[in-house]
User: What shape does this take?
Amino acid sequence: MFGCKEFLEEKTFSQLTPDNAYDSPEGAQKALNGAYAMLQDGFDRKWSVGLGILGTDEATSYNDTYTDHEVQLDKYTYSSEYNIFEAVYTDLFEGVKRCNVVIEQLPEELSEREVMIAQAKFLRGVYYFELVNLFGRVPLWLTSSADKDHLELPQASIEEIYEQIITDLSEAETILPTKTVYEGGKATQYAAQAMLARVYLQRLDYTNSLEYCNKIIDSGKFGLYSDYADVFDPQHKNEGFENIFEIQHRISYLSENEGSTTNDFFLPVELQGTPLTGWSMYGPTDYLYGSYESDDKRFDISFITSGINSAGQTVNFRPHCFKYYNRFTGIPVNDGEQNFPLIRYADVLLMKAEAINELTPASDEKFQCINQVRARAGLDPIENTGINSTKEGFVETLLEERLHELCFEKARRRDLIRTGKLQKYVLERKPERPVPNKGMFYYPLPLSAIDANTLLIQLEGY
Assistant: This one.
């Protein structure tokens, strides 16, 4: 105000720009951490979990009085204006953007550059695999440039997107460390191999899927915990034994920050005021809950039907998913310590069984794979008789086993679309929620994305 020119001039001691922000190992690591961070929002936040399980025979919405959120997913009444599509689509592409920055911006002289870029390529492959499975044809954005010509891209074909996913994961595989777990949740060679097995299986490339399943199995590095609950127990996170790659969470004492929110929509509203509280938004279908064999050990770990409320009274309620609850510390629902298993060894065994069934259906090796999973659940082995003696019959059995082993892990919708069973199973097992043709494969592109990019074309039917 008094014209103190020299007093108001400040000397610049440091300034971060795109040209120098990643020059130091610390700056590069922060950029890579940012690429990892979007896994939480894009994959296992309470909203994003719903995109992978609702509208199937696995899960259903528990409160039809809501006009938004999970009811639209379960009834297939959503439109391109549904805000959850926008949130997940934006989060996944934010992950892609952060990966592109790491891949393009790290200086040549950085000592860890090669491994950091390999991690970013792994993550970009993971983000695009989720995008293509949820939304189908999306732009293939592979540069960190903010120029409009690089931001406004037309949709790539499904084949082009999968080619890029396989390229990214394959390049990552050759460089990532050969460890079962890498510095608290970073990608490893085995994580890339397991994801490649999943990607090839979804493309119905059974030969390559089998090859990558065998790489994991033949390594001898992984196995199944004796107790199914240990898969989700925070005391076993990042052990690199059954969980091949986990999305990281830690208690932050701030709701919906670094802690897991997976339980928020699962746990019962009847237990408000206790560590078991939730919003009862969605839970198992009657079919899923009633489809377990009587001695399946996974059943009691996966579901909860009663508890003690804040008044000390025992209350009963509809079945709710319980597999992600921390039974030892009872951390509040929006700040969980548990990681989310993006891909684990049991899934690899079941993928191998599926690939073998398609390639050499007469082989008994597929039974060896599925029976390892069943043995941990305390179940008798299945044999090459009856329905399981046919290729199609074994698919039915395998899908049932995958439903029980991987329930609420965002596998079911992808499984049913891959095997062409989505409409059939929902019609038979959840007839009050029929699947229209428009919802058979992909969700609509968010209206906000189309408004922002004039080259995008909405999917037919939306």
Remarks:
- Strands lie at 59-61, 243-247, 282-284, 303-308, 314-321, 340-344.
- The chain has 18 helices and six strands.
- Residues 47 and 84 are 7 Å apart (CA to CA).
- The first strand starts at residue 59 and ends at 61.
